[in-house]
Amino acid sequence: MCLIVNGREVAVPEDPRVSLLDLLRERLDLTGTKKGCNQGACGACTVLVEGERIVSCLALAVQYDGRCITTIEGLAGNGELHPLQQAFIDHDGFQCGYCTPGQICSAVAMVGEVRRGVPSHVTSDLAAERVALDRDEVRERMSGNLCRCGAYNGIVDAIFDAFGDSPEEEAR
Amino acid sequence: MSLREKAKQRLQATAMSMVQKAVALAPDAWVPGGDPDPLIHHRNGLIGAPIPRLDAPEKVTGTARFAAEVPLDGMLYAALVYSTIAKGRLVSLDTSAAEAAPGVALVMTHRNAPRLKPLPTFTSNLRSAAQDSLPVLQDDRIHWNGQPVALVLAETQDQADYAKSLLHPVYEPGHAITRFAEAKAAGLETGAMMGMRFKDEIGDAETVLAACPVTVDEVYSTPRHNHNALELHAVTVVWDGDDLTVHDATQKLAHTAWSLAHAFDLAELQVRVFSPYVGGGFGGKGLWQHQLLAAAAARLAGRPVRLVLSREGVYRIVGGRTLTEQRLAIGARPDGRFKALVHLGTVAMTPHNNMPEPLIMGTRGSYAARALRLEVQAARVDMIANTFMRGPGEAVGTFALESAVDELAVRLGMDPIELRLLNEPEKEPTSGLPFSLREVEKIFRDGAERFGWSRRSQTPGQRRQGEWLIGMGVARGTYPHNRMPGGAARLTVTRDGRATVEFAGQEMGMGTATVHAQVTAERLGLPMTHVIATVGDSTLPGRVMAVASAQTASFGAAIAATHKKLVKELIGLAGNDGPLAGLSPDQVGGLNAGLAKLDDPTRHESYASILSRAGQAELTVEATAPLPLETMHWSMHSHSAMFCEVRVNAVTGEIRVSRILGAFDCGRILNARTAASQFRGAIIMGIGLALMEETQFDERNGRIMNASLAEYHVPVHMDVPDIEVMWTDTPDPHAPMGAHGVGEIGITGTAAAIANAVFNATGKRIRDLPITLDKLL
Ligand code: FES
Ligand code: FES
User: Which domains are seen in chain B, by residue range?
Assistant: First the structure.
């Protein structure tokens, strides 16, 4: 049994209690994914499973046998920054940086959800095929990612900078 | 508190007040800051430039390693068992099942824990970081609900957590005082801390108040709060013989090293604490029991240990802000001039710590009133030691003060800004000291214009859009300019024209290293790319906590002193045959990677040239900052004018902050980007304080009931509108770099601005935080 983390095959741990988060942090030394609560309440541990965002603290590693996981370390290739990582720097979308990997992974998948027309609590027309990526949509959809430093304005600006102008461009 | 401690405190207070009087009367030139920092005159350089954080690439790629992320060979994982009673004794704890569980290496209780020397609290000892004076796992006594009673070490976290579930402590409960009413009845004491006594009486305020034609006299209350930094408190420790290395998440780096050394009876240099990145602090990331427990367990097991508190664990053993009950009374003449101001607060602390939330601090310097009565009284509750949290004192104190000023404005039919400005004092009302900088009128006027304050209706409940009532509110925030003793730094210049500045600073997101690299580069006349700032290691120079918005000033003053010394030595090296020959250190400054005569920059020699002529590869100097006497010679404060617009749903009572603007009078801003983030972050914590944050404390048993991020609500993306911030950028002539700290001012005043806006929207005055929708229905 194995899962694929950032393109690399990784054996599923023998202890079935091990969460995906602990597998990443404690066994694979991929500590970019953070633990802020271990209870699904903060979003710091957000990773991508084939493009979908999940909180990895509430996921058992064994459940992801055969699946492809992308963490903050695997978001961009060959030493480059993902456009959203660069935008976070440009807009000061963090202070301590602890929520940052989770915010970035979450936002990448969130933009995908918007482009697929998945409605949210603030979407006014649930029947519409397209959902506009406005600031309230971003805020609502990112509300599962807490930032105690309060870098929220910068995060929203960064998301717009990276994805706002070209809404058709696929979230990488 | 023991009689001895009380006597000691009284003595400290007397000594402090004598020093204060002497420093107040000293000539300006004798006091640090009497000669303005030359950096104040540098314009159009690096100071204030919005330079991105130097550690930004590490933070966005996940390569910045926090305390729980340092890999060590053979490391064990720890889990803690917390007491479920508030006071009494642990009578039995059978450890056999846990010890036999898979992977378990150690179960540590008071029976087998190494003996540790007791620590003084950090409010009573300048070197200590300890929050309370309790022994750590040394005996069977229980002092609060949540106190650690056992620690399990195992090969994996899951094994440790499972083994911990096999421990079933048996307690013999004693009588705990967990109800605030009972604690108050048992006796109140006037708050005193670090040589300050939180009581001021000028004139007979109560009599003056009673005779005033217009008065407000109300009770305001705020609940307990927790910092909830997103990073869990964590520590990774390893012993090498008697040398201890600790990877900690701390805002008290050097103090933690001293404290661990003291507890384990080691020399200070045998303990090295690293903390290059801290995932948020806000006052909470200090020395609590977990660092001592991890080090003790590692010593016993003979292996490295990682201890990460669970989120619940953070609530159990890391204290937060106390609840407050505050009486705020203002007596005024019909024209709005204040005659009497009364601010009395009652707060909780514990028998084993001393932190009487200093909620009158902001009231001391805010308004001119001839009669003042201010006092903080504390009751002793059996609970986890309360501590400093962002804007200690002012965050909650300004809620009462600035709500009351708004209430008075309503009673007088006056604009609340005009009422505030009418009562601006000419010197600090309680100390009589002159202000070093005060641009309160400017921030109110500029802020009002930018915010569109003139569009506000003075009568509440006038603006409505469908179900939504809309209101505007304003309040003033204030926070002292602090500088701590103990600032020191090391500065190295190399022959290739590069520099390194090193100090035991802490980076919790404020941008410490970035800002000081910037300042150092500007002083030296080097580009940013040629300066490295290193922080986060307790063996570097300086012993300054990142608290009280004082870190930048404290290390900034040390770097200024270090730079001065460096210039002197460079001039010595340059000798008598270069372009700088015959010049004194005061006549030169850093320019174009070298030194130049201030009024004749053609007399210039590069660092490279000076060092190579002297045959040196580099020059390193170290210096300490002078004692921060300037804060006793001038009244040094930051101010804010907070403007807020809220929308309140008339049907459901739901409250949304739709606009918020903060105008700041904080001296020179050193980095526009990181400062703006500090302002915004603190304002957001102020939104939490106003609308949602509350640590729920079960008064029956002293247990915190909402020990999770699901049940303790902090502001999320959807709660936060775009926040506008602006600042005067006027340097404080007496502060290092002309700058004030900017980390805490934003939370002060914010809750009152929101409460005042809620009143303006609905006509309902809420005096008990948080303003939840049930209070509006
Ligand atoms: S750590 Fe997974 S949601 Fe908080
Ligand atoms: S940057 Fe610190 S929690 Fe978001």
Answer: 38-63+483-627 (3.30.365.10), 70-175+230-280+285-317 (3.90.1170.50), 196-224+321-482+632-775 (3.30.365.10)
